[in-house]
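Appendix B. Raw example, untouched.
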Amino acid sequence: MLTNQITDTAYYVFRLLSSKGIGPAKARQIMEISRNNGIPLYELFQKIDDNRLLPEVIMKYAEPLKSIGQQLFETWDKLIDNEIKSVCYNEKEYPQRLSDALGDKAPIILFYKGNIEILKKPSIGFCGSRKASEKGLETARDCTYQMVNRGANIVSGYAHGVDMATHVTALESGGTTTLVLAEGLLHFKLKNELSHVYDSDRTLVISEFLPGVPWSVRNAMQRNATICGLSSLTILIEAQEKGGSFDAGKKCLAMGRPLFAPVYEGMPESATGNRILLEQGALKLMRSKKTGKAHMQQISDFLFGGKLPLTLNK
C-alpha cells in the first residue's frame, strides 16, 4: 500500500495522533486548518511529504509527521485484516450523543469492530464493581433484561463483574450491546463468558485509543467519560468510594445526564460510592416489593420519551 493511494481521513488522523508532540487538541487544530483552507487531509499530507509550503502551525510538525508515515503501514494493514474500522469526530457517522456530551473533548477518532449502527438506538450505560455481590449482579441483569426488552442498547466497559453481566444478559435476551475498551482494539480478545453469545451484528466493540495502546488505569478513567457520553443515562452498581465506577458516576453527573443508583437490602458496606453519589445528585433506583424487580418505568420514560426523571424535573 502506498501513502499517496490512501484517502481515508482516519488514516491521516491516526498519523497525526501517532506523531511526537501532537495530541488530540493539536490534531483537531490541524484538521480545522485543513478544512478551512479547502484541502482534504490526505492532500495536506501529500504536501508535507513533498516538502511543499504550508501554514507555519503545520510546518513545524512536518518532520515528525513525515517520518511517522512509513511506520503506520503495518498497523493500518492489521486493522484492515481484523475488520477494524474508524470514524472521525467531523464525519456524519460519529455518534451525535457523544459529541453533545463532550463537545471539543470528545474523542477525535473512534476505532470499532462490529455494528456501529446500534449506537443510534436509545442507549443506557452501566458501571459497577468488578467484585459486585451476587445481588448486585442480579440487579444489573434485571435492569439490562428489562431495558433490552424495551428496545434499549446497553453500553459498558469490558471488565469482569457488572460489565460482563450486562453484556451477556443483553445478548442472551436478543438485544444489542456496546463494549467500550480502555485499550487499543488490537488488544481485544473475546472473553470466555461472552463467547457463547457473541454476535457481531448485535455487538459493537469500540475504543478511542490508538490500536496498539495497552490498558492502563488512566485510560480506564478517560474511557468512563465515553461510556457516559454514549449513553443517555447511566446505572451505577455497588461503586466503592474510590475507583473507576465512582469516577464514572461523577463524570455522568458532571455531564448533566441522569445517574441512577440501585438501593436494596444487603448492599455491601464497601458500596460507599453509591451513597455518596446519591447525596450529590444520583437518583435512587428501587426494587418492587411485590415483584422483586427494579422499578424501571422512570428510566424508560426518559430514555424513550425524553421525560425527565421527577427529581430532575424541577
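End of appendix B.
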